[in-house]
Amino acid sequence: MPPTRDWAARTRPWMGWVGIALAAGVAGMAGSYLVVGRRPEFVAAPLDRFVLAASPDMLVSFAITELGALGHQLAFLSALVLTCLTLGLAAIPGVLALRRGWPALGVGAGAGIHGSVVYGLTGSLHSSIGAAVGIGITLIVVALYSRSSTTRSTRTSTIERRQVLGAFGASIGLGTIGLLARRFTGQDKASGIDIPEDAGPEVRELLTLARDRSLNVEGLEPLVSTDFYEVDINNINPDVSTDDWTLAVTGAVETEREYDVGDIEAMAFENRFVTVRCVGDQQNGRQMDNALWGGVPAAALLREADPRGDRVILRGEDGFYNEFPLEDLTSGLFAYRMNGRRLPRGHGYPLRALVPGHWGEISVKWLTEIEIREEDTMGYWEYRGWEGTGEVTTVAKIWQVNHLDAGRIELAGHVYAGTRGVEAVEVSTDGGQSWMDAELSEPLPGADVWRQWRHVYGAVSPHEVVVRTRDGTGGLQTESESGPRPDGATGWVSMTVEPK
Ligand SMILES: Nc1nc2c(c(=O)[nH]1)N[C@H]1C(S)=C(S)[C@@H](COP(=O)(O)O)O[C@H]1N2
Ligand SMILES: [Mo]
User: Fold this and answer.
1) Of 160-174, 185-199, 263-277, which range is least confident?
2) DSSP character for 237?
3) Most Cβ neighbours (<10 Å): which of 134, 275, 316, 474?
4) Average pLDDT over residues 50-75
């Protein structure tokens, strides 16, 4: 027999069955997604955690902080591929049974094994039923198409093209339905200055103040962020059920304590504006935002435990943790409200820390444990080459350049110096030779809140603009430029502006 024919007779059908197994894997994943969405119960979630845990620290650091959203997408994509392969393997017994011409057994085995594997990975019945139904539908399509095969005897060695296409059609169809269905049942958000209907008088008053004090600059984000950035180690955020959640205070304390949601809500409550900036933020980047947070002053909660050490570790549901001086936390807030709404899942529901004047990384989200310590140690990012537990650097951003009438140019942005506060923003429109004071927004109440600046001037030719800040202690923003790694970006933001 000529070799080419041999290939056609053996290899092609073999590839067809492998294709069906892979399509079944995709269908199982799609079924799980359709039922549970992008939650920890989704079958790709445990494999995503595996990818994160198995990746070298430096790669994780690079992906999250340099690539940002893209890094997350790449990591998530590899988790999805891994999931399809795993479920594709799990589909093999069912596919083999189909190949032998036993459709009922094939569909049953496929669904049963997928269901069990997904249950084993996620512990979620819903997710495993979704996966079982997904593969079930796919294998039924394959079986139906083979029924019309002419000769029984050839069934084990031939496969019809439409069986493979049918399997892919079914899995792609399920995936599409899942994506569309989930698109509209998405995430809760609490960004924005829109005052919720049921907001109490204080929230109403403070959000109105933030609106009134925001500079009237076309295209510039107001003093309460309309789209609060999100940075964390997760592709799939924890989805904490408040019934199961507790916050433990442990370690070097007089009395270890455990709080549930009811306990937290019964404690002292405070509304506070707090600005958060990521240590990975570029000097003119967008990982800096402000919101009105509501929650328990950290001092009130810590007092109950009576700490005997001067260091603290905060731990989150996602395994993230950070260690820093307890002193920094005492002026902090444990927040469960954001802009008059429930704290959104992406920002740490049910409870997150906010540590004034410090990089966002110690403001641990999905908080589950406060461990008081007598000795220092390292946190999640310190093991990955960052030193982001300290105080924020000072920055004035150029976030908006507007061309007004009569050749006038309007520059504007946000300025933040942590708890040092902002005394002045200075603008140069000649590359740093001469400086003028910019207009500043009226400060909002709070010890750790950004402000906005604005400067309008006339120009006829391209020129370089530079901004710098004098903080509340009189200190001038560091001129020498450095990137974010390891302890935050420095330098004066500048850009070339061309008049229209
Ligand atoms: N549990 C947990 N908390 C976390 C993180 C995380 O990955 N897991 N990321 C930290 C980092 S690096 C930053 S900058 C802030 C960002 O808060 P945001 O996502 O609400 O903007 O959350 C911090 N808290
Ligand atoms: Mo961060």
Assistant:
1) 185-199
2) -
3) 134
4) 78
Residues in the chain: 500
* Contact predicate 380/350, CB 8 Å: no
Q: Give 277 Cα–ligand 2 centroid separation in angstroms.
A: 7
Which residue among 232, 361, 384, 485 is best mutated to probe the pocket of ligand 1, counting the most ligand atoms within 8 A of its Cβ? 232
- C-alpha span between 208 and 254 (Å, rounded): 43
| Closest ligand 1 atom to Cα of 232 | 7
Cα 386 to ligand 1 centre (Å): 14
Backbone angle region of 418, left / alpha / beta, with phi > 0 → left and psi within -120 to 50 → alpha:
left
SS3 315: strand
Output the furthest CA–CA distance in the chain (Å, rounded).
90
Question: What is the structure's pLDDT at 1?
Answer: 41
Give how far Cα 104 sits from Cα of 107, 110, 151, 349, 485, Å: 5, 10, 19, 45, 58
State the distance from the centre of ligand 2 to the C-alpha of 283, rounded, in angstroms: 14
Q: What is the pLDDT of residues 245-299, one digit of tens each?
A: 999 999 999 999 999 999 999 999 999 999 999 999 999 999 999 999 999 999 9
Range of lowest pLDDT (1-5, 111-115, 309-313): 1-5
What burial letters (b/e) apply to 267-287, b meaning 16+ CB within 10 Å?
Answer: eeeebbbbbbbbbbbebbbeb
Give CA–CA dist 390/358, Å, rounded: 6
Token pair recorded at residue 19: 């294709």
Q: What is the pLDDT of residues 119-156, one digit of tens each?
A: 999 999 999 999 999 999 999 999 998 755 444 444 44
Decide: residue 363, CB within 10 A, 0-12 exposed, 13-18 middle, 19+ buried. buried
**Residue ranges in 91-200 assigned as alpha helix (H):** 92-99, 103-122, 125-147, 161-183
**Are residues 398 and 217 in contact, defined by beta-carbon separation less than 8 angstroms?**
no
- Residue 73 Cα to ligand 2 midpoint, Å, equals 18
* CA neighbor of 78 nearest in space, from 107, 49, 57: 49
Which residue type is seen at 23? A
Structure tokens at 466: 């530079």
CA-nearest residue, atom 7 of ligand 1: 232
Strands 247-251 and 367-373: parallel
The ligand placed nearest to the CA atom of residue 354 is 1
Secondary structure percentages of the chain, helix, strand, coil, to 5 = 40, 20, 40
